[in-house]
Amino acid sequence: MRILVPSVAACAAAVMVTTFGLSSSTAAIAVPVNPEISSSPLTDISDDGLDEIGARASSESTAAASNRALTNVPGLLRASGATTATNVAAGPMTPHSGAFEAANTGLTDSSAESAEDDAPGLGGPSGPATDAAEDPDVSGSAESSEPDETDAPVVGSVQEETEDGTSIAAISEAVDVPSGNPSVVGVTYEGDTDVSFEVRQKAGGEWGAWTDLEIENLDEGGNGTEPFIVSGADGVQLRVLGAADAPAATELVLVDPKSSAGDAAAVEENQPVLPPQADAGEQSAAPSDEAEVPATDAANAAPADGASAQNASYVPGSSSVQNTSVKKVDKPSIGSRKSWGAKESMRNGSADYASSVKAAVVHHTAGANGYSAGDVPSILRGIYSFHTQGRGWSDVGYNVLADKYGRLWEGRAGGLSKAVIGAHAAGYNTGSFGISVMGTYDKAAPPQKTIDAVNHVIAWKLSLDGVSAADRTTLGGTRVRTVIGHRDVGQTVCPGAAFYSKLGGMRSAIEKMQDGGDTPEDEKKKDDEKKKDEKKDDEKTSKTPIEKKYEGNVEQLGKPSGEEFKIAGGLGQKYAKGHIYYTKDTGAHIVKGVFDDRVDEDLLKTIGFPKTDSKGGLTDDGQYQPFQKGSIHYTEATGAHATTGILQRYWKDKGYENGHLGYPTGELTVEDGRAEQAFQGARLVWAEGYGTTEFSAEGDLNADVEDLSPRDGGESGEPGEGPSDEPSVEPSEQPTTEPTEDSSPEPSRSASPEPTTTPSPKPTKTADPKPSKKPEKSEEQKDEEKRAAIIAEAKKHMGAPYRWGGTSPSGWDCSGFTQYVYGKHGIDLPRHTSAQKNAGTVISAEEAKPGDLVWIPGHIGIISETKGQMYDAGSSRTNTSKRSYSWMLDRGAVFVRVI
């Protein structure tokens, strides 16, 4: 997690220049596993990396990076013992650093009584840098009526900035990650830095959003970021943001923890919920899986608060300030280090101990939440390897980790019942118990079973020293509650806003257990008994889930027809006005009207069973019904059509029905490695090797831009020989799987869709078999044909090299390209950008059509057939390409018509 404090030390990062395997230890797990760590420099801009789709996309953290004026430096922790805590003023709060109770300090106390509000960041993002113009006519001699083009940006320079103007100091190429198991990535570097680090994942050939990697600098080991869990992806990419250069010796570290034959057994044996192990109020000796630590492992430094470090002879419960009202809580089931394959030879040194545990600090690890139960041991090995081998730490930073399935796992070695000093909260490790939930919990809290497990282990751990969850204590010189989130003692998002908001209820649950109340295991037993009783009652009534659903919907469904029947792995029942479909996973839901007309067994096999009844209230009086792997959308104008898989995900990314694609107008077809579906605004096509692309819907593109290129074949949506057969966006990466998707998020319902127009009908032939002559084309038709020809000409030269001052396909600059393309079709343009702008008529953005020009001082391009994109010769990095002109809009773009 990012610690924002003044520098007190700077340690050199461990630099790895080759891939190496860690030594195996047959004593650790039944089947030895050799995690593999590799590293590569991350100090320069990779041309291949910058050319990846979305490499310059903005993120939640880029605004902060553009105005960063702070130093992320080592904290106050040492592996061999904690130093006396030092109170320091917190640095500036970044917009992505979460909410804090006070803007000028990170040493706050979490509140159980009030919810947390996001606090605005200090400072704002700076505007984009102003560079020199690339065009040869920009030399300070422009006409006085034009803006001073010497201040215009070099078009190539925007390639080294994000879309919102943040400098990219370094970016990696796309890095392949293991396909058979999760992996861990992170960054190490030397010295201090004022940059930030971001990571993104690629799955199914498409990149996800950029995510901030929080800096986690401690006195233990070298400087670097927290480990980021990668799961369900086939590639990652990292970048460094900020005006400064990437710090010295910056390395991208990738850990492949491998999978083990013992992982499944470890998960199976470590059940999320087990019966209580001992009678309440009795404290037994340390379990057999906790080996005694020799006395030579004692800490050699004095902990904070005057507490003395202890060796292995420390006995839990020896604190002199024990709260006698706290009852001992039974120890929950915790998977041992041996069970998840921790190689003890990788540890650097031995454990250190405090005199007692006074507080618990709750964390999340960050990274992917989509891991499976069987992935957990592998992820634990990855974090362990990154901490010890990548960062040079002595051991895992957390005392215990929890997964999203409600299982607990031993982290730092030294004995679970002992007051082991971890490495999880700089300056507050001595006397604290660090527990971290695997995953990211900013927007959604962990499942209740995981929260229950965290509550139980904290209740048990604090009860060993008679500490109540209702108390306050002094930790690291600061007065805090005994159960806190990491952000209460450091400026960090950890444990995530959604998880942090649960702390008040967690304290109450922990206090209840410490007062002799039920543990989560006890509550589960009662819940199981209750469910058994309910099941018996249900069996007595002899009503199926479908019959129960029908009871409250008799009028809208009408009379049943026939008996319940099996269909597509579930059950169905026909009624006069629709159906009810049921599976154990989805429950029973009604399908009626236009949705019922559309649903059959084949569709259920494709998109699964309904998750809810149908819903209305969409744009244009639309309705929709979500299914397990897709959805059906309906409007009177478009009819009812199902979406699923990769094309639905693409539609979602474009805003569902509220975006430029509008509603689906046809059915999904999949054949020979190609998936295709028509929407109001475009025809989407996914193909092997090309990813998802947009083709123009016949006669109509979004924003009323018409594409009247001739087609050979005549049917709507079929490609022909004309230029409209080209994809309307650049091809994305090749997916590695069939175009399917496990789930279908419900669409956003906020904004209205962009306007679309109904294409004009194609002219039909007259009944006269021998017309005397062809009708003359109107001026408007001639103009449209010329526009189509210009677009076709521009497409021919995609990839032509950029050369400043050039005017031919062998090499040209932006104005040389536009002059050549228009000249091929009888339109003579002047040589330079300013003169080309003055050669036409300035029009509004709403009037702009394909073939018009878009201009800013120093650069010019040809508006393409795709909304928001242009053809241009931008720089030696992009050469001649089709790309977005949104960055020009930010600089006051002018639209010009010369046709």
From TrEMBL:
Residues 1-30 form the signal peptide. SUPFAM superfamilies: Cysteine proteinases, N-acetylmuramoyl-L-alanine amidase-like. Residues 784-899 form the NlpC/P60 domain. Residues 293-313, 729-738, 745-755 have a biased composition (Low complexity). Residues 316-326 have a biased composition (Polar residues). The keyword Nucleotide-binding does not apply. Residues 87-164, 263-347, 512-557, 695-785 are annotated as: Disordered. GO terms for biological process: peptidoglycan catabolic process; proteolysis. Keywords: Hydrolase, Protease, Signal, Thiol protease. One of its GO terms (molecular function) is zinc ion binding. InterPro entries: Amidase/PGRP_sf, Amidase_domain, LGFP, NLP_P60_dom, Papain-like_cys_pep_sf, PGRP, PGRP_domain_met/bac. Residues 522-552, 765-785 have a biased composition (Basic and acidic residues). Belongs to the peptidase C40 family. This is LGFP repeat-containing protein. It comes from Brevibacterium jeotgali.
